[in-house]
Amino acid sequence: MVSRAGLSQEAVVDAALELVDQDGLDALTLAAVANRTGVATPSLYKHVRNLAALRQLIALRVLDELTERLGAAAMGRSEEDAIRALMLAYRQYAAERPHRYAALPQKPQPDAALAAAGGRLVEVFLAVLRGYGLTDSAAIHATRCVRAAVHGFVALEVAGGFGLPEKLDVTYENLIDMVSGGLRTGTFT
Amino acid sequence: MVSRAGLSQEAVVDAALELVDQDGLDALTLAAVANRTGVATPSLYKHVRNLAALRQLIALRVLDELTERLGAAAMGRSEEDAIRALMLAYRQYAAERPHRYAALPQKPQPDAALAAAGGRLVEVFLAVLRGYGLTDSAAIHATRCVRAAVHGFVALEVAGGFGLPEKLDVTYENLIDMVSGGLRTGTFT
DNA sequence: GCTAGAAAGCTAATGCAGTTAGCTGGAGTT
DNA sequence: AACTCCAGCTAACTGCATTAGCTTTCTAGC
């Protein structure tokens, strides 16, 4: 069935994710992945176009993983309850897998699969916001605001952008209040 | 006065910033900086410890530049007026210099100068929030929330994380409303 | 003015990572 | 049993960061 090491694109991405989890994003090198999969570096090119492509595959995985988590968290809840669950789950994912979260692309990627995954993520937010009775355009603006708040907090937290780490839970509760308050009382254009 | 090319750490950072502005963060390479300053690559080590150090110097510059802009924008304003000006100036900086904004560190940096610069940035936010009569701890939480919202939006925008770029101005106005509404009515612990 | 020393620059060389080219051997097929 | 395909390999090249050691030039002090 499979020749030698039984490698596949999936297995390569798996190994790359382990590497990222353990040693951070900067440690993601084809040599390291090859080493971890017990293969010579050039052999990886049989499964992955190049390093950039591997990074995109990773981003795709992370995005889908996050989307799944958020969907599960929001399921069966509505309105503020759902928003709160969504935001908590989001932060929790980044806390559990900070390096994976950091692996999300920081620059515009022209990748179609990635864009689709981003769309799926947005869909989860939109689904939750429908409970607020927001019309199409308003829902989009509201979604962006929620995403901005959540991503901003998490990104700053992961990057060590906040001083004291003790009270971050409290800050996040405040942020949740701010967001859900804004959704309740705010006027979205 | 100065030996040959009249280089200095400042000049190296200047050249590096030009490079980043023009070609993006990935284009920041010692070879490229050397080329731009008319010097052989190893000569740069006379002014900068290594590439990582250069990156930190760049981050420092950007952080201070941003802080200065925000301070100027908030000056003479108070409460919602000031918050609005602050948020608009923040986004405008990132829009003008997206690559510089992206050059801010994404990972915890143990650099003291960088931490100090971060502290100065936070000070501007805190100064504005004092107008809301927030006590110490509450002011810190509120500041973090504002920063999270602003940074999240800007980071997503710079990264192309939003679909349609047309209505982003509108979204940002909504975000400003959400934040200032939260500051007005919210209870910060 | 002259000379010593520090500073700034250079060339040479090393190591590592990504990538390409071309070979090879085993698995599945006919 | 011969054929074909493909995963994996070795060899080789490139670009970049970094170090070592030499040369030149400016400055300071005599």
Automatic annotation (TrEMBL), chains A, B:
The keyword S-adenosyl-L-methionine does not apply. It comes from the Bacteria. PROSITE patterns: HTH_TETR_2. Keywords: DNA-binding, Transcription, Transcription regulation. It holds the Pfam family TetR_C_33. Gene3D superfamilies: Homeodomain-like, Tetracycline Repressor, domain 2. Residues 29-48 bind DNA. Residues 6-66 form the HTH tetR-type domain. It comes from Solihabitans fulvus. This is TetR family transcriptional regulator. GO terms for molecular function: DNA-binding transcription factor activity; transcription cis-regulatory region binding. The keyword Iron does not apply.
